[in-house]
Amino acid sequence: MSSCSNVENLSPQVIRQVARELGELCSDPPEGIKVFTSDEDITDIRAQIEGPAGTPYAGGLFRMKLVLGKNFPSEPPKGFFVTRIFHPNVASNGEICVNTLKKDWKPELGIKHILLTVKCLLIVPNPESALNEEAGKLLLEQYEDYSMRAKLYTDIHAKPPKASTESGLTSSLKGSIEGPMAKKHAGDKKLIDKKKKEKKKVLKRL
């Protein structure tokens, strides 16, 4: 069933409630979390979570989405990381396993509570309910290896756009500007030296 169908199946009251909460989250977001809404489909909620300091995810920006089903809020939404992440509670398809979205769900819990819970999951993973068994095993038995792998994923997949853009510009500048500019400067220097020699010759004649 498509997201559009979910909108049609949600009651006007639920739609108003979700729209109100999303508006509040956009105007007053929790620390380290940004929420993006779509006027076309209110059941497809996008968010961006900053990797918490002191974790292997620090320095990364992790995009995720919440999909509200037709029975929301009686049933929990489904949560997915759109950004690739190495984490015990995140499956290869990005699905997030957290009790708030499973057995501990209550209709009165809001979107903000879910986002804060997912952020906490980055700080304190739960290897006992691992969707990524390799990550869960490393977390329990070889934390350093787990941390290194998680940091690697963060560096590759979750670096902020600004940083990647700047690094891209830097490398671009080095390749496309420094090269030609260096040649240009070298050419300018030769031209200046040539003019200096010609000037000396003229002075000698005088």
UniProtKB/TrEMBL annotation:
UBC core domain boundaries: 13-159
Keyword Nucleotide-binding: yes
Sequence ranges of Basic residues compositional bias: 182-206
Classification via PROSITE patterns: UBC_1, UBC_2
EC code: 2.3.2.23
SUPFAM superfamilies in alphabetical order: UBC-like
Reaction(s) this enzyme catalyzes, per UniProt: S-ubiquitinyl-[E1 ubiquitin-activating enzyme]-L-cysteine + [E2 ubiquitin-conjugating enzyme]-L-cysteine = [E1 ubiquitin-activating enzyme]-L-cysteine + S-ubiquitinyl-[E2 ubiquitin-conjugating enzyme]-L-cysteine
InterPro entries found in the cross-reference section: Ub_conjugating_enzyme, UBC, UBQ-conjugating_AS, UBQ-conjugating_enzyme/RWD
GO BP term (any one): exit from mitosis
Catalytic site: C97
Entry similarity comment: Belongs to the ubiquitin-conjugating enzyme family.
This protein's name: E2 ubiquitin-conjugating enzyme
Organism annotation: Mizuhopecten yessoensis (Japanese scallop)
